[in-house]
């Protein structure tokens, strides 16, 4: 087993251990939730890009950086607590964690469907190949591509989020 496979989960957890308090502090100190949320999502995006590179050190650093971005979850829960009334707060936090669990289930499912059911032809000499030749997608880096895609969409949506203050 290579180093990256052994320690990838530990690096992600270590990154979220750093990111949770960091983003919580940023949310408490400054009232710019869009910018802080966008920076957390950007960490996930860049960490996913490093995951694609297939270098063991890049994979470990990418998992750590994505973990820092995932640590934003605690700050978002705090933001929900500050900006919602006591009666609507449980519903909003339940929706947040429900969406997180849907992502945990659908992410690997989509990857297995995409890689298990789709085989493409490479344009070089019409040879049959398991990889998507243009992007180099394979079983090892497909997770990074999917995570980059979803975090890219979320990054584009960040400026449109509205944080309402409690009245």
TrEMBL record:
Its main location: membrane. The keyword Aminoacyl-tRNA synthetase does not apply. GO terms for cellular component: plasma membrane. It is a multi-pass membrane protein. Keywords: Cell membrane, Membrane, Transmembrane, Transmembrane helix, Transport. GO terms for molecular function: transmembrane transporter activity. It comes from the Eukaryota. The chain crosses the membrane at residues 7-27, 33-53, 60-81, 101-118. It holds the Pfam family MFS_1. Residues 1-167 form the Major facilitator superfamily (MFS) profile domain. The keyword ATP-binding does not apply. InterPro entries: MFS, MFS_dom, MFS_trans_sf, MFS_Transporters. It is found in: Cell membrane. PANTHER family: RESISTANCE PROTEIN MDTM, PUTATIVE-RELATED-RELATED. This is Major facilitator superfamily (MFS) profile domain-containing protein. It comes from Oikopleura dioica.
